[in-house]
Structures are given as C-alpha cells and as structure tokens.
Amino acid sequence: MSRRTPKLPSWLPVDPYILALIGTVALAAILPASGTAAEVAKGASTGAVALLFFLYGARLSTAETLEGLRHWRLHLTVLICTFVVFPLLGLAAGGLVPYVLTPQLHSGLLFLCLVPSTIQSSIAFTSIARGNVSAAICAGSFSSIAGIFLTPLFAAVLLGEEGGGFSADALLRIAVQLLLPFVAGQLLRRWIGGFLTRRKKILGRVDRGSILLVVYTAFSAGMVTGVWHQVTPARLGALLGVEALLLALMLTIGWYGAKRLGFGREDRVAIQFAGANKSLAAGLPMASVLFGAQASLAVLPLMLFHQMQLMVCAVIAKRRSHDPQEAHATGTATAREPAVAG
Fold first, then answer.
1. CA 295/CA 286 separation, integer angstroms
2. How many CB atoms lie within 10 A of CB 75?
3. How far apart are CA 275 and CA 13, in angstroms?
C-alpha cells in the first residue's frame, strides 16, 4: 500500500523566496558584515539598488501604461488606497506608541504604509479571483511609478529625521540610486526590452538576489549597532496583530468602497488586491536608501506584512473564484501568473 506524501493546503502559499529572506536574516544575525566587509557589502548593496530600479524602468511598457489610462477611475481609486488611506491608518497607529508599538516599530509600520502596491501578486490574485487582470497590471504599474516619487517624499515629510530627513543630500541619494536608473531603463527599453523579455527567469533571479543582498546589508548593520536589542517577542507579536488589523481594514475598504463607487465585480477584485498589497521588491531598496543603518527595523514590518498578505489574499482569491460570474469582456484572458515576492 503506497504512502501518500503529505502536502500543504493549496491555499497556503509558502513562497521559497520568503524562506530565502528568513535565511538571509538568520545569516546576518550569525555572521554580520562588519569593518571592511560591511563597506564592501554596502557598496554592493548600493549597486544592487540601482540595478533593480534600472530593470524596473526597462521592463515597464510605456504603451501598456498609456493604454490603461482609459480606466483612470479605477487607477485613481487604487492610488488613493495606497498613498492616502494606508498612510492615514499608519499615522493613526501612532496612538499605539509606546503602549503597543515602540517608536522604531511604528516608523517601520508607517514606512510600510507609504510603499507602492505590488504588481505580480496583485495580478496573480486578481486572475485567480476572475477579476479584471489588465486593470490590475496597469494599476500596479502606475503605483510603482508614483511610488518612486511619492514614497521618498512622504517618508521625508512624515518620518522626519527617522526617514533620513528632507535634505539636499537625501534628495541626491534618491535621485542617483532610484530615479536616475529608472529613467535610464525607460530610455533604453526600446533597445533592450526584447532582450529582457526573453530572459525573464534569469532576470528574476538577479532581482531576488539583489534584494537578498540589500536585506543582508541592512540586517548586518542592525546587528552591529545593536538595534535588535530594542525588540522583544511581545512587541513582535503586537506588531503582527496590528498588521493583521491593517490588512483586514484595507481589504474591506477596497471591496466595499469600490462597490459604493459603482465599480463592477471584476474591477472591485482588482481594486481590492492592488489597493491592499504592498511591494517588498520596491520597499526594501527604498528603505536601504532612506533609513541607512536603521533599515533593518524599518523593513521588518514590511517583510512580515508581505508574507501575511500572500497567505490571506490567497485564501480570499480562492473564495472569490467561486462568486457568481458576471458577464465580462476584459481581464480573464490574461495568463495566470504565480504569486511572487513583488
């Protein structure tokens, strides 16, 4: 009699990349880079951030973005969820300091609220739930573009000195490490776009490897400076509870708010997922630029929230797929993509 190999439930995504992130944090805790090694890691991390944003710019189709403008009400709704409602909830969470959250954890939570929406995961969940996939693609793309400008600006204004301050030096770092490579990628897309499209898997590994390097550098700096002594298991548990409430609120606001605004079911699905998800791939590099040595605590809430959104949204998308189907003409023909760490 054959023994069946036990499998995890299909609705519980265990992303290997999340395991790699956890392993990278553990490596930084055991063998943090210090001295000359820290300088080398910091230089490599800076180059990796520039490479990431160059690739983002080179891959983003300007034609697709312009085509999506015709659905401007949906995109505006997602942008309001991402850059207005989320930050307002993050600011409201300031009332939990110091009773539930430490000031450092609240800064990380607020930074999470300023990060743009993810593209890949929003597309995947929208596709599973039989929503408007093309709208999810455009909404995520618009959010990513807006985030390059709005996330550093809002972080400077709302986080003040904790976010690096709104100084000429901070603006220069943002322009050199984030904006300039992104613009260069857009300008060169005409010549290298096809090359990148044909090598998605290889470039995906470059993306993820670069982010792992950023994580290792940030958490190594946190270990060397001793910032982890400021976080207790109780505080981490409280942070998880606050993030669970934040995600639940955004998913509810996205679904029922879109209904009140008159959107159909397919559009509501796209708004719910694109408006409630946050991009780990965009947030980690930005945090390394904006927070410097304090980046390890700043990105902790984002890393936890990202895994939480994958698990929760996978369950919701699966259930949404059984909703009564409306007549539709857009979105469902797009190929389904896997949920990744975007």
1. 9
2. 24
3. 20
